[in-house]
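PROTEIN DESIGN WORKSHEET
SECTION A - STRUCTURE
LENGTH: 336
TOKENS:
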């Protein structure tokens, strides 16, 4: 059905899984464009075939994306212009106080955005729906995580990302995309953070990892590659990743966790990363292990001048939706 995500004949009323679009990129620090991610993924999703080898009846889950809010896009555009001015002042060597008027307004608006996302996701969770978020930059899921924490007293986050995102703040932005996991760890219900594919990080973030006393386990991309070169299979490495996770898992997927040949227009691409099939294999093993996916986000998809990033993003989104449904017992896996 044209206009619906993946062309599926579902609305928010009769769908089992609700996708919440979050076209927001106020604090991005390099290239922008990810605010256009939800629309680009929606457009590209019509080219996705519905059959999955491991989940033959995947399309029956019922997935619907909420309308992309035009007022949010306008607010994002205005604030993005302010943040560009703020970043230019930093680049010119100005010392900016945390109480700076423009910076304070941006931080306040980002917290209001988090409150909005929490309200929307919480409403659908209370209806018994499965919920996921489509960004936007990686700051966008914080409100969703807060909503989930009121439903689940303990869960873990599986973060697939090129970056650790553990900065206390970045460039003065308290809700920076580079701080999402630092902010997520303030939520008491988040008992464990497992990071996969990280290959771009700073000394401050390494200190956070070392001081976490086991609450954070990071599978650095360099180490994953080194083990592979030594003959350790992805099968065995997936087992180690999954063993670190509790029974309930939230997946936070920054598209730059993939090899940048799959997402060349993302805001902060980094050499290295995972292949698409490595990710889908990890999702499959996660579900077969008995872990339950309670929610996810997909973010940092920036369409660029062609459809490549959006096509990859749409196919990744389809996989995430249906492995989540399978983990919740709403879809049957193929009998081997």
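SECTION B - SEQUENCE
RESIDUE ASSIGNMENT:
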């Amino acid at each position: 059905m044209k206009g619906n995500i993946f062309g599926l004949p579902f609305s928010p009323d009769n769908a089992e899984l609700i996708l919440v679009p979050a076209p927001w990129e106020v604090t991005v620090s390099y290239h922008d464009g990810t605010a256009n991610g939800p629309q680009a993924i929606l457009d590209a999703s019509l080219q996705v075939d519905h059959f999955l080898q491991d989940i033959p009846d995947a399309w029956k889950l019922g997935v619907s994306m909420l309308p992309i809010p035009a007022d949010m896009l306008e607010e994002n555009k205005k604030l993005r212009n302010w943040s560009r001015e703020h970043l230019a002042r930093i680049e010119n060597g100005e010392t900016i106080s945390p109480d700076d008027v423009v910076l304070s307004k941006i931080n306040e608006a980002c917290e209001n955005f988090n409150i909005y996302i929490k309200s929307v996701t919480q409403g659908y969770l209370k209806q018994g729906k499965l919920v996921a978020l489509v960004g936007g930059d990686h700051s966008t899921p914080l409100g969703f995580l807060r909503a989930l924490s009121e439903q689940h007293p303990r869960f873990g986050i599986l973060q697939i990302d090129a970056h650790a995102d553990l900065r206390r703040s970045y460039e003065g932005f308290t809700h920076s995309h580079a701080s999402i996991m630092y902010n997520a760890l303030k939520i008491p219900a988040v008992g464990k953070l497992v990071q996969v594919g990280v290959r771009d990080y700073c000394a401050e973030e390494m200190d956070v990892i070392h001081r976490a006393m086991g609450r954070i386990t990071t599978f650095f991309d360099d180490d994953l590659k080194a083990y592979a070169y030594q003959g350790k299979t992805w099968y065995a490495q997936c087992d180690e990743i999954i063993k670190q996770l509790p029974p309930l898992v939230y997946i936070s997927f920054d598209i730059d966790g993939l090899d940048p040949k799959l997402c060349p227009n993302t805001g902060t691409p980094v050499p290295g990363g995972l292949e698409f099939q490595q990710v889908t294999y990890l999702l499959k093993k996660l579900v077969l292990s008995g872990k339950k996916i309670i929610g996810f986000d997909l973010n940092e998809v920036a369409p660029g001048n062609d459809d490549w990033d959006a096509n990859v993003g749409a196919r990744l989104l389809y996989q995430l939706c249906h492995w989540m449904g399978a983990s919740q017992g709403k879809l049957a896996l193929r009998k081997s």
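SECTION C - NOTES
The first strand starts at residue 17 and ends at 22.
Residues 101-126 form the longest helix (26 residues).
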